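We emphasize that the prediction below concerns an isolated chain of 180 residues; any contacts that depend on oligomerization or on bound cofactors are therefore not represented. The input was used exactly as deposited, without trimming of termini.
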Amino acid sequence: MNLYLRYFDQEAFATNVDQAIDFLKSIPEIGMDESLEADVRDYAASDVCYPKRYKVRPRVYFIVIKTTAASMRDFKDKKALRSTPSGEHRENVSPSVVRLNQQQPGWYEGALDFKRVVMIPATGKFEYRDTHFVANVKALSALDCYNRIVEYLRQRVDSRSQFPSAKGKNFAYRYLGMWK
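Result of the prediction step, given as a token string:
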């Protein structure tokens, strides 16, 4: 397992933990000490595959990423991604996204919970209010239903209002049947 290290615009690709520690020692701002060196060695030896972030000072970090890439170029080109047994990269698409895009022309009942900007008359200030909106829409798919509802609302509410993603829990739909 190789290591990719980055601190702002300084980056390195190390084939072993000693190279990674030498790179970190070459950056005086990091202040490499024995405990940090031991922690980097433990991370490199562990089975954890997630990137590790180390704090240098408030809001300043360097990262260490484990990779199976053979070189910096392969890492940047993302050639070390996990692949399926057949060797091809498989798209991870959730069933809900597939159902959203499924073409089924007809009437849909779409329900959307969004944050609407409204003015408080007493103070003249604005605030976000949770708003529930339900509409029957003639659409080609559930995603088309969502897009039509959001387009309709954007023309009628404050432009600062926030609309949820069609894939989230704040959008629900029900197919009502074919149009006539």
